[in-house]
Design goal:
It contains 5 helices and 5 strands. With 146 residues, it is an alpha+beta fold. It has a single domain, classed as Roll (ph1033 like fold), CATH 3.10.590.10. The chain has a 5-stranded mixed sheet.
Amino acid sequence: MKSEPDVYGIEDLKRDRTTVWDGVRNYQARNFMRSMTPGELVFFYHSNTTPPGIIGLMKVAKSNVDDPTQFDAKSKYFDPKSTRESPRWQTVMVEFVETFPQIITLETLREAFSPDDLWVVRQGNRLSVMPVPEDVAQKILTQAKG
């Protein structure tokens, strides 16, 4: 899951311990979140920063949470077509697990994985939520631990 560190970074999650991962407005990313289950580990990726990359780990604390920002007319993520009876945007609550000793940069990920192995290395990939195959996740965790 990607977030810009100046919007909500891993240090924010570490401080807060848990948060609702709100504001995702892409149907494919939403569908990926709908498939998440409590206890599932998630990489925290800092995007739109120098360098971008995986900075830590979190886990799904609660799944199938209605994104509250879709109902808030003052939010930039407000969706006037979404109602409490028929919400369009679901998300997850995540919990801080750890910050890695050093960032695993996008450049390092590109050297280690093909675009078929890891979606984040695909050119032009703008999705904020992407699946990571188990074998790839294990290699990333091994690299993160040094």
